[in-house]
Amino acid sequence: MTPSKREYFDKQVAWVLDRLPKKIRRILEEIPLHVEDCPSRRMMRDMEIKSDEELCGCFVGVALGERYERNPQLPNTVILFRRGIYAQAFNDQGIFSRTELRRQIRITLLHELGHFHGLDEKELDQLGYG
Known about the structure:
Elements: H1 3-18, H2 22-30, E1 33-36, H3 41-46, E2 57-60, E3 77-81, H4 82-88, H5 98-116, H6 121-126
Parallel strand pairs: 1-3
Antiparallel strand pairs: 2-3
Helix pairs in contact: 1-5
């Protein structure tokens, strides 16, 4: 990914973060947010993902409801993957949309924070963050 594409994406992440409700921004003060081009080969292999554009984000750590059942020392992290989210910002005709990019960033971020709060894929789908 080119440096200018990274910079553009990161500016859009900042734009989305600035417009999130205060409660969500407070959660992000406690959970580091990382932005990477794509998942590692190991992560793709572990998650059985064939293309780096298939994954938009990932929550790494222990969900709130499981903290005392597991190791409470594991760090929680949300990772956004630029390539996966960029891929979602193109329509069927291959036209890029900044509005859709921002929407996908927001959806991905809220999806991963949902995992932090213990929601599974089905519950996130029902909330519109699938």
